[in-house]
Design brief:
about 290 residues, alpha/beta, 10 strands, about 15% strand, globular, binds ligand 7PJ
Length: about 290
């Protein structure tokens, strides 16, 4: 999978070997009912397509499409509902933009159908722990993001506890990479993600971000999603639609602490911010 290089828009990075010369932005495209429900399927697909085109033009390296809400308290959807939401969107985008598509799902049937429809990557907040998911990923041979979560979305924010958040998230990810590799998943295709906000208190999230570098010795590229999340709301007192400045700040900090891929709703602003961060970090490394 070739992903665009957010720094200069040249598609050159191989996500197969995952050599990131500069930070990549993964644009978030939700096709859950709370985002694109109005006006029926055709309007929904059209709105999603326009959003994808705008993200591609803004320099998104990957477009992440999800049909299951994983926000705290969210209920579950079945595979058919997820497919009904995402397949028309994946097909429409695949025909219109070159930017690789990732599918945000935990269900093996959804992974298979999404890849058949043109998705190039799997983003699984449950780290391939659902029945059959690991096997599906092994067969599909696509880059896959393994995310840490404590608990399950419906209940994960009810008193998450850790002795040491950084150590525990790190050992989960390290073990999960080893388990997936031992089961036959090509290790070179794995990306890891500490899962900000997924079974973590505010102070857990801050501690993780401050110590993100400690996840680097696992030896896999780091993806982080901080965009518009509630930890930014807690810090700023802002509603979700007012969190762009906080999201930009978090994206820059994440990259300065070692993240290679930043999952973000506001692609254009994030790409600009990471260009600045990248130029400064590169100049620092040259001395
Ligand atoms: C994440 C995600 C994240 C990965 C969501 C939201 C909640 N996938 N899907 N990492 N967050 N890999 O965007 O606020 O942090 S959904």
């Amino acid at each position: 999978m070739v992903v665009a290089n957010s720094c200069d828009n040249i598609p050159m990075l191989q996500l197969g070997t995952l050599e990131f010369d500069c930070p990549a932005v993964m644009g978030v495209l939700n096709v859950t009912p709370d985002s694109f429900s109005d006006g029926g399927r055709f309007v929904a697909r059209d709105a999603a397509l326009r959003e994808a085109e705008s993200m591609a033009a803004a320099g998104a390296a990957i477009i992440d499409i999800g049909g299951e809400s994983t926000r705290p308290g969210a209920g579950s959807v079945n595979a058919q509902q997820e497919l009904d939401r995402i397949l028309p969107v994946i097909e429409a985008i695949r025909g219109a933009v070159d930017t690789p598509i990732s599918v945000d799902t935990s269900k093996p049937d959804v992974m298979r159908a999404a890849v058949a429809a043109g998705a190039a990557m799997i983003n699984d907040v449950r780290a391939l722990q659902a029945d059959g998911a690991l096997q599906a990923a092994i067969e599909l041979k696509r880059p896959v993001c393994l995310m840490h979560m404590q608990g399950m979305p419906r209940t994960m924010q009810n008193e998450p506890t850790y002795d040491d958040i950084v150590v525990e998230v790190g050992s989960f990810l390290r073990q999960r990479v080893a388990q997936c590799r031992d089961a036959g998943l090509d290790q070179d295709l794995i990306v890891i993600d500490p899962g900000f906000g997924f079974g973590k208190t505010h102070s857990h999230n801050i501690e993780l971000l401050a110590n993100l570098r400690q996840l680097q010795d696992i030896g896999r590229p780091l993806l982080v999603g901080l965009s518009r999340k509630s930890m930014l709301g807690e810090l700023t007192g802002r509603n979700v639609d007012e969190r762009l400045p906080a999201s930009i700040s978090a994206a820059v900090l994440a990259v300065m602490h070692g993240a290679q891929i930043v999952r973000a709703h506001d692609v254009a602003a994030t790409v600009d911010a990471l260009r600045v961060a990248d130029a400064v970090m590169e100049a620092g490394e040259r001395r």
